[in-house]
């Protein structure tokens, strides 16, 4: 038993008391879920309304997260768990008054880049702060260079709002709202999202007070301690069930101008799990750097997914996962380095952590690598939005749109990977109709990318292929923030890599995976998203499953033969004798074509 365990208050001994605390805990979870759904339903931008790129949670007066909504992303939720400590450092709880609300988009004290606003609202009962509601969402624009990695400092990336009052005594800071309105390209959407953040916190505030009334509580101190201690002890139990030891794993990201090395050392100890990113690449000159808060958020999520997925995510369970990265690392980028697209590398971190755990738990006990980073279509057009002569944009419609899309996840233990699914972010793909209704972008096709999932006994999930153009005879700008173009997701235990991503114009001109690029007038753009890696020898995959994949267009007949060793007849049924002979021949040759 650690000293921390000795200092932990004993759990409730009375059965009715334990039941009562569990009922209140469940009620608290319903409060934060309604909070998040209110944000999604009132949000103005597609990232909030359609993709669910948000977070919502309740915190105690010490700034500890005690409940988070399932609706939301780990990058927002887990970094918000740290952000609230920064809020109360600037504005101590004792100084807060009813009607006060606080806001920031500070990348180092918030969620990693300027495009995310976090709003904190204190919850009062009998003129006393008893808890706090917080929420975060990604806004469509924050000024500056836009959502891309070209910036060389944070000053180029947009409007920086330090932790400050958003409302004071119930009055909105109109000066701040005017500054936001005048510094972004989509003021209605951005300001609308800020009001949505305030609104969802108000709902959480109302429901929380109703909960206190219903359970005849003056505060939640006992409930908070119960939640945090129970979760911490459950997380420790899960960690102590693992074999102690240390493992290493590394991965390469495409980077912007140079490949980026991500190296991790994971240590399993009796009092927690430590992940150290020493040995990773130094910071980049471009906006792919990751503030530590975002590194911590996604690395912790990778541990949590594998070690204790059923333990609630809160300050207690996060407390025993310790993340560190050197200050001269791309994963702990100091102010004022550019960080606009910190998600590209940050969302690869769970794969790195899972890679470490594969050496402890076994390569077939964890998922293979997936696309992991999002493959969002970020497009803009009109005056000032495209790097061409103004005359070419004389009649062009001005627009700025971001549509969320995903490649495939890696194969899972005993299961295929998920196709066109955002892991680890968990955001939803945006329907094409929404993108087309908000911009002149026309999506000609959107379908699974055949053969993109890495072959294996358990196949990787498939990426997507999208073909897009503009309905106007005008050029538009693509802001490419993609990875896994040069370094595809890797398979495990004999499983093959997923296909790398690719961007290509209709005239076969390839585009870069990162950076702003002009799509000429009348030209089509094809976006080929990566697939996840496979697990296990492909020739061990059930032939009937291969045939099913062929019939559904997931695997081509050629790859069924060359990668899986499965022979199909003219009706796409398995020829068992021919398959047996072919697989035997592949085994004797010791190679796969």
UniProtKB/TrEMBL annotation:
Lineage, uppermost ranks: Bacteria, Pseudomonadati, Pseudomonadota, Alphaproteobacteria, Acetobacterales
GO molecular function: 5-oxoprolinase (ATP-hydrolyzing) activity
Protein name per UniProt: 5-oxoprolinase (ATP-hydrolyzing)
Origin species: Novacetimonas hansenii ATCC 23769
Gene Ontology process terms (BP): glutathione metabolic process
Domain Hydantoinase B/oxoprolinase: 18-538
GO cellular component, one term: cytosol
Alphabetized Pfam families for the sequence: Hydantoinase_B
């Amino acid at each position: 038993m650690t000293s921390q365990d000795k200092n932990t208050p004993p759990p409730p001994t009375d059965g009715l008391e334990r039941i009562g605390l569990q009922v209140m805990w469940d009620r608290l979870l319903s409060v934060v879920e309604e909070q998040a759904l209110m944000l999604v339903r009132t949000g103005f931008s597609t990232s909030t309304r359609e993709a669910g790129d948000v977070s919502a949670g309740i915190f105690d007066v010490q700034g500890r997260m005690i409940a988070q909504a399932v609706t939301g992303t780990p990058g927002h939720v887990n970094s918000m768990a740290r952000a609230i400590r920064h809020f109360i450092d600037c504005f101590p709880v004792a100084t807060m008054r009813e009607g006060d609300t606080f806001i920031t988009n500070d990348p180092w004290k918030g969620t990693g880049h300027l495009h995310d606003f976090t709003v904190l609202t204190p919850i009062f009962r009998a003129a006393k702060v008893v808890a706090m509601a917080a929420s975060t969402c990604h806004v469509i624009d924050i000024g500056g260079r836009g959502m891309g990695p070209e910036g060389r400092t944070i000053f180029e990336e947009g409007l920086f709002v330090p932790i400050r009052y958003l409302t004071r005594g119930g009055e909105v800071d109109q000066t701040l709202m005017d500054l936001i309105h005048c510094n972004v390209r989509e003021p209605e959407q951005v300001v609308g999202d800020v009001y949505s953040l305030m609104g969802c916190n108000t709902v959480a505030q109302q429901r929380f007070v109703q909960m206190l009334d219903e359970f005849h509580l003056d505060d939640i101190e006992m409930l908070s301690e119960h939640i945090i201690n129970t979760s911490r002890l459950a997380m420790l139990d899960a960690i102590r069930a693992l074999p102690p030891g240390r493992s290493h794993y590394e991965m390469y990201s495409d980077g912007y101008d140079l490949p980026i090395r991500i190296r991790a050392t994971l240590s399993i100890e009796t009092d927690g799990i430590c992940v150290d990113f020493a040995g990773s690449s130094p910071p980049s000159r471009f906006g792919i750097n990751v503030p530590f808060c975002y590194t911590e958020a996604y690395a912790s999520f990778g541990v949590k997914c594998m070690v204790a997925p059923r333990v609630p995510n809160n300050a207690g369970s996060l407390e025993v996962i310790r993340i560190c990265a050197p200050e001269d690392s791309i994963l702990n980028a100091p102010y004022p380095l550019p960080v606009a697209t910190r998600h590209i590398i940050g969302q690869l971190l769970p794969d790195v952590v899972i890679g470490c755990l594969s050496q402890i738990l076994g390569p077939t006990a964890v998922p293979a690598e997936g696309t992991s980073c999002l493959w969002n279509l970020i497009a803009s057009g009109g005056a000032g939005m495209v790097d061409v002569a103004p005359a070419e944009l004389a009649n062009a419609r001005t627009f700025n749109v971001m549509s969320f899309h995903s490649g495939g996840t890696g194969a899972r233990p005993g299961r295929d990977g998920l196709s066109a699914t955002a892991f680890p972010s968990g955001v939803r793909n945006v329907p094409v109709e929404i993108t087309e209704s908000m911009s002149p972008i026309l999506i000609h096709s959107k379908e699974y990318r055949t053969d993109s999932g890495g072959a294996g006994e358990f196949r990787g999930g498939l990426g997507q292929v999208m073909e897009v153009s503009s309905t106007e005879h005008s050029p538009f700008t693509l802001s490419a923030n993609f990875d896994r173009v040069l370094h595809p997701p890797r398979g495990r235990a004999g499983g093959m890599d997923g296909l790398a991503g690719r961007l290509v114009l209709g005239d076969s001109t390839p585009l870069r995976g990162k950076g702003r690029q002009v799509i000429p007038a009348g030209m089509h753009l094809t976006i080929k998203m990566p697939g996840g890696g496979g697990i296990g020898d492909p020739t061990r995959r059930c032939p009937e499953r291969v045939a099913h994949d062929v019939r559904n267009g997931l695997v081509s007949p050629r790859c069924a033969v060359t990668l899986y060793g499965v022979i199909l007849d003219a009706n796409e049924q398995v020829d068992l004798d021919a398959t047996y002979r072919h697989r035997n021949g592949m085994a004797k040759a010791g190679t796969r074509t």
